[in-house]
Automatic annotation (TrEMBL):
It comes from Falco tinnunculus. GO terms for molecular function: actin binding. SUPFAM superfamilies: Troponin coil-coiled subunits. One of its GO terms (biological process) is skeletal muscle contraction. Belongs to the troponin I family. GO terms for cellular component: troponin complex. This is Troponin I, fast skeletal muscle.
Amino acid sequence: SSFLQKKRRAATARRQHLKSAMLQLAATEIEKEAAAKEVEKQNYLAEHCPPLSLPGSMQELQELCKKLHAKIESVDEERYDTEVKLQKTNKELEDLSQKLFDLRGKFKRPPLRRVRMSADAMLRALLGSKHKVCMDLRANLKQVKKEDTEKEKDLRDVGDWRKNIEEKSGMEGRKKMFEAGES
């Protein structure tokens, strides 16, 4: 048992080591991704936002403000256009999903009911009225006459079992049974 305990301890230690190694790798990957995002952000800002050079005169400042306002307006127009497109596509998606829901609802299959149908009626329904196939299975059966046997007559004659027991009870009943057995 001590061998198994040592083996278990070694396995848990190995698992702990592997976990810590994986966590270290994940931490370095996260740091690399953060650094890459920061570089990408700096490149984007350098490309789209030129460095700000403040002019010295009031007229140059007013022109700079006019340019900035023009850029803001163009960006707002683009944002508004994209929002309108997004709303339009969302509306189309809702309409299509509603149509799909309606179609599913229309063609919901009802629970099937058992229909009693003879074999002839089934064949007529499947093949049409042109084909006349007779599947009357009862017509092919033989007629058997039932013969009355003596046992069945005796059973019918016995009738109510209570009367039968009353007749056989007592000395007279035993006498009748004895006489019936002799004859």
